[in-house]
Design a protein that fits this description.
Helix content is about 35%, strand content about 25%. By secondary structure, it is an alpha+beta fold.
Protein backbone atom coordinates (compact mmCIF):
# COMPACT_ATOMS: atom_id res chain seq x y z
CA UNK A 1 0.00 0.00 0.00
CA UNK A 2 1.34 3.43 -0.85
CA UNK A 3 0.22 6.85 0.31
CA UNK A 4 1.18 9.60 -2.11
CA UNK A 5 2.74 7.09 -4.47
CA UNK A 6 3.92 3.51 -4.83
CA UNK A 7 7.43 2.17 -4.88
CA UNK A 8 8.90 0.53 -7.99
CA UNK A 9 7.99 -2.94 -6.71
CA UNK A 10 4.84 -4.38 -8.21
CA UNK A 11 2.18 -4.98 -5.56
CA UNK A 12 1.46 -8.69 -5.36
CA UNK A 13 -1.66 -8.68 -3.21
CA UNK A 14 -2.65 -11.04 -0.44
CA UNK A 15 -3.09 -14.16 -2.52
CA UNK A 16 -3.23 -17.26 -0.29
CA UNK A 17 -0.40 -19.70 -0.73
CA UNK A 18 -1.12 -22.67 -2.98
CA UNK A 19 2.26 -24.38 -2.83
CA UNK A 20 3.39 -27.55 -4.52
CA UNK A 21 5.24 -29.42 -1.79
CA UNK A 22 7.14 -31.76 -4.08
CA UNK A 23 10.33 -29.82 -3.53
CA UNK A 24 13.88 -30.94 -4.00
CA UNK A 25 16.46 -30.02 -1.36
CA UNK A 26 18.75 -28.27 -3.82
CA UNK A 27 15.87 -26.15 -5.12
CA UNK A 28 14.75 -25.25 -1.61
CA UNK A 29 18.14 -23.97 -0.57
CA UNK A 30 19.28 -22.25 -3.76
CA UNK A 31 16.11 -21.01 -5.44
CA UNK A 32 13.48 -20.70 -2.69
CA UNK A 33 10.27 -21.57 -4.56
CA UNK A 34 7.62 -18.87 -4.39
CA UNK A 35 4.82 -20.35 -2.29
CA UNK A 36 2.87 -17.11 -2.05
CA UNK A 37 1.81 -14.99 0.89
CA UNK A 38 0.76 -17.20 3.79
CA UNK A 39 -3.01 -17.44 4.00
CA UNK A 40 -4.89 -14.89 6.15
CA UNK A 41 -1.86 -12.74 6.80
CA UNK A 42 -3.36 -9.81 8.71
CA UNK A 43 -1.98 -6.30 8.28
CA UNK A 44 -3.68 -3.95 10.74
CA UNK A 45 -5.50 -1.24 8.76
CA UNK A 46 -5.04 2.47 9.30
CA UNK A 47 -6.76 5.61 8.07
CA UNK A 48 -9.61 5.06 5.65
CA UNK A 49 -9.17 1.27 5.77
CA UNK A 50 -10.07 1.24 9.48
CA UNK A 51 -13.83 1.25 10.22
CA UNK A 52 -15.03 4.30 12.12
CA UNK A 53 -15.90 3.85 15.78
CA UNK A 54 -18.80 6.28 15.25
CA UNK A 55 -20.25 4.92 11.99
CA UNK A 56 -19.34 1.22 12.19
CA UNK A 57 -18.41 0.23 15.76
CA UNK A 58 -19.33 -3.41 15.10
CA UNK A 59 -17.00 -3.58 12.12
CA UNK A 60 -14.22 -1.94 14.11
CA UNK A 61 -14.66 -4.45 16.94
CA UNK A 62 -14.54 -7.31 14.43
CA UNK A 63 -11.29 -6.00 12.94
CA UNK A 64 -9.70 -5.64 16.37
CA UNK A 65 -10.76 -9.16 17.30
CA UNK A 66 -9.24 -10.58 14.10
CA UNK A 67 -6.08 -8.57 14.78
CA UNK A 68 -5.78 -10.09 18.26
CA UNK A 69 -6.41 -13.64 17.01
CA UNK A 70 -3.92 -13.17 14.19
CA UNK A 71 -1.26 -11.91 16.58
CA UNK A 72 -1.71 -14.93 18.84
CA UNK A 73 -1.71 -17.31 15.85
CA UNK A 74 1.48 -15.75 14.49
CA UNK A 75 3.21 -15.93 17.86
CA UNK A 76 2.39 -19.60 18.29
CA UNK A 77 3.43 -20.41 14.71
CA UNK A 78 6.91 -19.09 15.52
CA UNK A 79 6.94 -20.89 18.86
CA UNK A 80 6.02 -24.18 17.17
CA UNK A 81 8.77 -23.68 14.60
CA UNK A 82 11.26 -23.08 17.38
CA UNK A 83 10.40 -25.98 19.67
CA UNK A 84 9.98 -28.59 16.92
CA UNK A 85 13.32 -27.91 15.25
CA UNK A 86 16.24 -29.69 16.93
CA UNK A 87 19.48 -28.07 15.86
CA UNK A 88 22.19 -29.89 17.76
CA UNK A 89 23.09 -32.25 20.53
CA UNK A 90 23.64 -29.59 23.17
CA UNK A 91 20.50 -28.26 24.85
CA UNK A 92 21.39 -24.61 24.20
CA UNK A 93 21.83 -25.31 20.50
CA UNK A 94 18.64 -27.28 19.98
CA UNK A 95 16.29 -24.75 18.46
CA UNK A 96 15.93 -22.50 15.44
CA UNK A 97 17.22 -19.03 16.31
CA UNK A 98 14.54 -16.50 15.36
CA UNK A 99 16.61 -13.32 15.82
CA UNK A 100 13.55 -11.06 15.60
CA UNK A 101 15.68 -7.97 16.17
CA UNK A 102 17.43 -8.57 12.85
CA UNK A 103 14.27 -8.63 10.75
CA UNK A 104 13.77 -4.87 10.37
CA UNK A 105 17.43 -4.03 9.57
CA UNK A 106 17.48 -6.88 7.06
CA UNK A 107 14.25 -5.70 5.42
CA UNK A 108 15.62 -2.15 5.13
CA UNK A 109 18.84 -3.42 3.55
CA UNK A 110 16.91 -5.60 1.08
CA UNK A 111 14.58 -2.69 0.27
CA UNK A 112 17.53 -0.49 -0.71
CA UNK A 113 19.38 -3.24 -2.55
CA UNK A 114 16.32 -4.38 -4.50
CA UNK A 115 15.31 -0.97 -5.83
CA UNK A 116 18.91 -0.02 -6.52
CA UNK A 117 19.42 -3.21 -8.52
CA UNK A 118 16.15 -2.69 -10.40
CA UNK A 119 17.18 0.82 -11.41
CA UNK A 120 20.62 -0.38 -12.49
CA UNK A 121 19.18 -3.33 -14.43
CA UNK A 122 21.14 -5.74 -12.24
CA UNK A 123 19.26 -9.00 -12.78
CA UNK A 124 21.94 -11.04 -10.99
CA UNK A 125 21.37 -9.23 -7.70
CA UNK A 126 17.59 -9.40 -8.10
CA UNK A 127 17.80 -13.15 -8.72
CA UNK A 128 19.77 -13.54 -5.48
CA UNK A 129 17.55 -11.47 -3.19
CA UNK A 130 14.05 -11.94 -4.69
CA UNK A 131 11.68 -14.87 -4.96
CA UNK A 132 10.47 -16.02 -8.36
CA UNK A 133 7.32 -13.92 -8.74
CA UNK A 134 8.71 -10.46 -8.10
CA UNK A 135 11.98 -11.30 -9.85
CA UNK A 136 10.06 -12.17 -13.03
CA UNK A 137 8.12 -8.90 -12.79
CA UNK A 138 11.28 -6.85 -12.38
CA UNK A 139 12.98 -8.66 -15.25
CA UNK A 140 10.03 -8.04 -17.57
CA UNK A 141 9.96 -4.34 -16.70
CA UNK A 142 13.70 -4.00 -17.24
CA UNK A 143 13.42 -5.73 -20.62
CA UNK A 144 10.66 -3.29 -21.64
CA UNK A 145 12.81 -0.21 -21.10
CA UNK A 146 13.56 1.80 -24.24
CA UNK A 147 17.03 1.24 -25.64
CA UNK A 148 19.58 3.58 -24.10
CA UNK A 149 17.31 4.74 -21.29
CA UNK A 150 18.88 5.09 -17.85
CA UNK A 151 16.95 4.70 -14.60
CA UNK A 152 18.10 6.14 -11.27
CA UNK A 153 16.37 5.33 -7.97
CA UNK A 154 17.11 7.43 -4.90
CA UNK A 155 16.01 6.93 -1.32
CA UNK A 156 15.75 10.47 0.02
CA UNK A 157 14.94 9.43 3.58
CA UNK A 158 12.84 7.15 5.74
CA UNK A 159 9.95 9.19 7.13
CA UNK A 160 9.16 6.96 10.07
CA UNK A 161 10.79 4.14 11.94
CA UNK A 162 10.27 0.81 10.17
CA UNK A 163 8.37 -1.82 12.12
CA UNK A 164 7.18 -5.40 11.84
CA UNK A 165 3.42 -5.69 11.30
CA UNK A 166 3.30 -9.45 10.72
CA UNK A 167 5.77 -12.22 11.54
CA UNK A 168 4.78 -15.85 11.20
CA UNK A 169 5.95 -19.31 10.22
CA UNK A 170 4.55 -22.42 8.60
CA UNK A 171 5.84 -25.97 8.68
CA UNK A 172 5.82 -27.71 5.31
CA UNK A 173 4.80 -31.39 5.04
CA UNK A 174 8.41 -32.45 4.57
CA UNK A 175 10.57 -33.27 7.57
CA UNK A 176 12.76 -30.32 8.44
CA UNK A 177 11.13 -27.94 5.95
CA UNK A 178 9.48 -24.65 6.89
CA UNK A 179 9.07 -21.05 5.83
CA UNK A 180 9.07 -17.79 7.78
CA UNK A 181 7.48 -14.61 6.49
CA UNK A 182 7.64 -11.11 7.94
CA UNK A 183 5.88 -7.99 6.75
CA UNK A 184 7.71 -4.75 7.51
CA UNK A 185 6.07 -1.33 7.20
CA UNK A 186 8.40 1.12 5.48
CA UNK A 187 7.53 4.81 5.15
CA UNK A 188 9.97 6.63 2.90
CA UNK A 189 10.52 9.48 0.48
CA UNK A 190 11.77 8.18 -2.87
CA UNK A 191 12.70 9.53 -6.25
CA UNK A 192 12.72 7.54 -9.49
CA UNK A 193 14.25 9.32 -12.46
CA UNK A 194 14.39 8.12 -16.05
CA UNK A 195 16.76 9.59 -18.60
CA UNK A 196 16.34 9.12 -22.33
CA UNK A 197 19.24 8.04 -24.54
CA UNK A 198 20.08 11.70 -25.21
CA UNK A 199 20.37 12.41 -21.46
CA UNK A 200 17.11 14.32 -21.07
CA UNK A 201 14.92 13.63 -18.05
CA UNK A 202 11.77 11.77 -19.07
CA UNK A 203 8.71 13.93 -18.38
CA UNK A 204 6.81 12.98 -15.24
CA UNK A 205 9.80 11.34 -13.54
CA UNK A 206 12.35 12.65 -11.06
CA UNK A 207 9.80 13.84 -8.52
CA UNK A 208 10.05 13.01 -4.83
CA UNK A 209 7.16 10.94 -3.49
CA UNK A 210 6.19 9.83 -0.02
CA UNK A 211 5.54 6.10 -0.10
CA UNK A 212 4.27 3.62 2.48
CA UNK A 213 5.10 0.02 1.62
CA UNK A 214 4.44 -3.27 3.33
CA UNK A 215 7.50 -5.26 2.30
CA UNK A 216 7.19 -9.04 2.60
CA UNK A 217 10.43 -10.90 3.28
CA UNK A 218 10.78 -14.62 3.78
CA UNK A 219 13.29 -17.34 4.46
CA UNK A 220 13.10 -21.09 4.06
CA UNK A 221 14.41 -24.03 6.05
CA UNK A 222 15.44 -27.39 4.59
CA UNK A 223 16.65 -30.17 6.88
CA UNK A 224 16.54 -27.37 9.46
CA UNK A 225 19.26 -25.52 7.58
CA UNK A 226 18.36 -21.86 7.43
CA UNK A 227 18.31 -19.94 4.15
CA UNK A 228 18.74 -16.20 3.65
CA UNK A 229 15.99 -13.60 3.87
CA UNK A 230 14.63 -12.74 0.43
CA UNK A 231 11.98 -10.34 -0.85
CA UNK A 232 8.59 -11.81 -1.78
CA UNK A 233 7.06 -8.49 -2.79
CA UNK A 234 4.72 -5.96 -1.24
CA UNK A 235 1.21 -6.35 0.12
CA UNK A 236 -1.45 -4.01 1.54
CA UNK A 237 -3.42 -3.37 4.68
CA UNK A 238 -6.21 -5.85 5.37
CA UNK A 239 -9.65 -4.47 4.58
CA UNK A 240 -12.97 -5.37 6.20
CA UNK A 241 -14.12 -7.05 2.97
CA UNK A 242 -11.11 -9.35 3.13
CA UNK A 243 -11.85 -10.31 6.75
CA UNK A 244 -15.49 -11.05 5.86
CA UNK A 245 -14.31 -13.28 2.99
CA UNK A 246 -12.01 -15.20 5.35
CA UNK A 247 -14.90 -15.82 7.71
CA UNK A 248 -17.16 -16.91 4.85
CA UNK A 249 -14.52 -19.31 3.57
CA UNK A 250 -14.13 -20.78 7.06
CA UNK A 251 -17.88 -21.35 7.34
CA UNK A 252 -18.01 -22.91 3.88
CA UNK A 253 -15.13 -25.22 4.76
CA UNK A 254 -16.93 -26.33 7.93
CA UNK A 255 -20.09 -27.31 6.06
Amino acid sequence: MAKGGRGPAAHRGATPAEPSFRLQSKEMMTKTPDIGLLGETFIAPTGKNLPSIFHAPGALLRMRWIQLKSSLRDYFSLLILKITSPQGKRWYNRFVKLHRSRVVPTAIALHREMYGAFAAGDATTLRRICTDGIYDQFRARMAARPRGEKTVWELVKYNKRARIVSHRAARLPIDGAAVRQAVVRLSSRQKLSRYAADGRLVKGTGKERDVVEYLVVEKSYWNWQEGDWRVWGTTEETKLETVLQWQKDALDAGN
